[in-house]
Amino acid sequence: MIDPAVQDVMKLYLEHVGLPPELSPEDQQEFLESESERIAERIDNMKAHMQEQVLARYVRENGHPAPYMEQVGLINQAWAQATEYVIAEEIYGQDLPEEMEAYPPDQESPEREAERDAARIQVHRSDPERWRNPLNCADPGTEANGLTDLLWGRRDATFQYFAVHLIQARIEDSLPYPTSTTHPLYPSFTSLLDERVTQHAARAR
After folding, report:
1. Which end of the chain has a smaller Cβ tally under 10 Å, C or N?
2. Which contacts (CB < 8 Å, 24+ apart) does range 76-80 have?
């Protein structure tokens, strides 16, 4: 029987993300369950992390542990925030708040993590807009890195982060991309990347 928490995630995933149409119905269901279990596990890990942090913060600020009922309130608040953060990132594609960037990675074996990454990348392989969320992209190759440095080497790290994945996606999809700053596509690609960086910054605030 599927855990109720996983079922809730599955409903959200179906409503807001959807399933890869290229998969068979059986593979779609397996993918949905796997992704939902992964997200539910992330929520549990985030809850434990944030509960520990909020209780430790209370001790630092007050010099003693929180009274029992206050602990319950703090924990409930931390759990709600943990769920909100992970769902916002995983389901709605929003960035984690700045204070959560140092959150430790999920506790799973490197091999299992690599398998999940490979499966996620494969699922998004046919999406031309996958560069907008680089976690869904394959690692950029030498050509993409070299072109990004040539075209936008003076831009900041966030801009280059999206740029290199955009170029890599275009290379993989055999679609045109700028090869110099005088290339006809260079202005439109720069504007597209500026727009994505602005969206990224707005979500981070």
Report:
1. N
2. 78/47, 78/50, 78/51, 78/53, 78/54, 79/47, 79/50, 79/51
Q: Which two tokens stand for residue 46?
A: 């985030």
Q: Tell me the C-alpha distance between 93 and 115, whole Å.
A: 21
Q: Which whole number is the average pLDDT over 107-120?
A: 66
Using an 8 Å Cβ cutoff, are 31 and 123 in contact?
Answer: yes
Encoded amino acid at 56, one letter: A
* Residues 34 and 119: beta-carbon distance below 8 Å: yes
Identify the band that residue 1 occupies on the pLDDT scale cut at 50, 70 and 90.
Answer: low
- What is the pLDDT averaged over residues 193-199? 90
Please answer whether residues 47 and 83 qualify as being in contact, where contact means their C-beta atoms are separated by less than 8 angstroms.
yes
CB atoms within 10 A of CB 205: 7
Q: Determine the Cα–Cα distance for residues 47 and 170; give it in Å rounded to an integer.
A: 38
Q: Which of 45, 27, 35, 30 is nearest to 6 (CA)?
A: 35
**Token digits of residue 77:** 């608040």
